[in-house]
Specification:
By secondary structure, the protein is mainly α. The protein has a single domain (86-305), classed as MetI-like (MetI-like fold, Orthogonal Bundle). Helices cover 77% and strands 0% of the residues. It has 15 helices and no strands. The chain has helices at 2-29, 33-38, 44-53, 60-72, 86-121, 126-140, 143-157, 170-199, 202-209, 214-225, 227-239, 246-251, 257-266, 270-298, 300-305. Helix 5 packs parallel to helix 14 (270-298) and helix 7 (143-157) packs across helix 8 (170-199). It is flat and about 85 Å long.
Length: 307
C-alpha cells in the first residue's frame, strides 16, 4: 500500500510541475503584459520600467527559477493591476465560488445517483425511459442556455428569484440548479449503466435465487460493485469545482473565481492567472489521487497491481 501511495503522490507532483511550467511559458511568450497593462501607446521608457519592476527583462529560465523558488515558499506573487497579493485575491474568490459549487455538487450526486439507480432497477419500463429522457436532456442543453432559461422564467416572468449576484441566499438557487442539472444528468447515465452491468452478473442472480431480500442484494452487493465508474466521474466533478463555473458565473453575474479567471486572462495579470492554474491543477490532481486510493480500497487487485 505504501508503494501504491508513493507512486500516486510522485505522479501528482510531476503533473502539477508540468502544468506550472506550461502556464508560465505560455503567459510570458504569447503577449507582453506591459503593453496590456499600460496600453499600446505607452512610451518605451514606461514599458522598460515595467519590465524591470516585474522582472520581465530577465531570461525566461531565470524568471522561472525565481518563480519556482517563491512558489516553494508559498509566495504566488502580486497582481500587476493593483499590487494585491495574488493568493489572497484568488482565495477570496474561491470562497465565493464554493458557495454555489459545493451545494450543486451535493445536489447533483444525490439526484444523479438516485435517478440512475431507479432507472436501472426499472430497466425497460416507462420510469426508466422517463429518467433517461431527463438525463439526456439535461446533458444535451448547454449550461449557459439552461441558465438563461431559468433567469427568464424565475427572475423575469415570475419574479420569484434574483437574476444574479450574491446579495442573499436566493441568489444562489438558480446557479446551483444550473450546475446540478448537468452533473445529475451525467451521473444518472453512468450509474444506470454501471448498475445494469452489475445486476446482470451471476452472483446477483445467485443471491436472489437463494432467497435474499432484493433490497439487501441491491444495497450490499450491487451498489458497491457499481461504484467504481461512478466514483471516477464524481472525482472529475470534485476536481473541477474551482474552474467549472466560469460560464455559469458569467450568466448569473456571480463574483467568483470564474469571473476572476476571465478578467485576469484578458488583462494578462500573470501572477493571478498562474495562481489560479496552480490551485486548479492541484485540486484536479488531488481529487484524481483520492479516486485512485478509493479504487485500491474498492478493488484490492488494483492496489496489488500498483496500476
Amino acid at each position: 500500500m505504501t508503494a501504491f501511495l508513493l507512486r500516486r503522490v510522485l505522479r501528482a507532483l510531476l503533473t502539477i510541475l508540468i502544468v506550472v511550467a506550461a502556464a508560465f511559458v505560455a503567459l510570458r511568450t504569447t503577449s507582453d503584459p506591459a503593453i496590456v497593462v499600460l496600453g499600446p501607446d505607452a512610451p518605451p521608457e514606461a514599458i522598460a520600467a515595467f519590465h524591470e519592476a516585474w522582472g520581465l527583462d530577465r531570461p525566461l529560465w531565470v524568471q522561472f527559477g525565481s518563480y519556482m523558488r517563491d512558489l516553494v515558499h508559498g509566495n504566488f506573487g502580486k497582481s500587476m493591476l493593483d499590487g494585491q497579493d495574488a493568493l489572497e485575491k484568488v482565495l477570496d474568490r474561491v470562497a465565493v465560488t464554493l458557495q454555489i459549487m459545493v451545494p450543486a455538487l451535493v445536489l447533483g450526486i444525490m439526484a444523479g445517483v438516485g435517478a440512475g439507480t431507479v432507472a436501472a432497477l426499472n430497466r425497460g419500463r416507462p420510469l426508466d425511459r422517463l429518467m433517461m429522457l431527463g438525463a439526456v436532456s439535461g446533458f444535451a442543453v448547454p449550461g449557459f442556455v439552461l441558465g438563461l432559461v431559468l433567469v427568464l422564467v424565475f427572475a423575469v416572468t415570475l419574479q420569484w428569484l434574483p437574476s444574479g449576484g450574491n446579495d442573499s441566499w436566493k441568489g444562489t438557487l438558480l446557479p446551483v440548479l444550473t450546475l446540478a442539472t448537468g452533473w445529475a444528468a451525467i451521473l444518472a447515465r453512468f450509474t444506470r449503466s454501471a448498475m445494469i452491468e452489475v445486476l446482470d452478473q451471476p452472483y446477483i442472480r445467485t443471491g436472489s435465487a437463494k432467497g435474499l431480500i432484493w433490497r439487501e442484494v441491491v444495497i450490499r452487493h450491487a451498489m458497491p460493485n457499481a461504484a467504481i465508474p461512478v466514483v471516477t466521474m464524481i472525482g472529475f466533478m470534485v476536481g473541477g469545482l474551482l474552474a467549472g463555473a466560469v460560464v455559469t458565473e458569467s450568466v448569473f453575474s456571480w463574483p467568483g473565481l470564474g469571473q476572476l479567471i476571465v478578467t485576469s486572462v484578458s488583462s494578462r495579470d500573470v501572477a493571478v492567472v498562474q495562481c489560479v492554474l496552480v490551485l486548479v491543477a492541484a485540486t484536479m490532481v488531488m481529487s484524481n489521487m483520492i479516486v485512485d486510493l478509493l479504487y485500491g480500497w474498492l478493488d484490492p487487485r488494483m492496489r496489488e497491481g500498483g496500476r
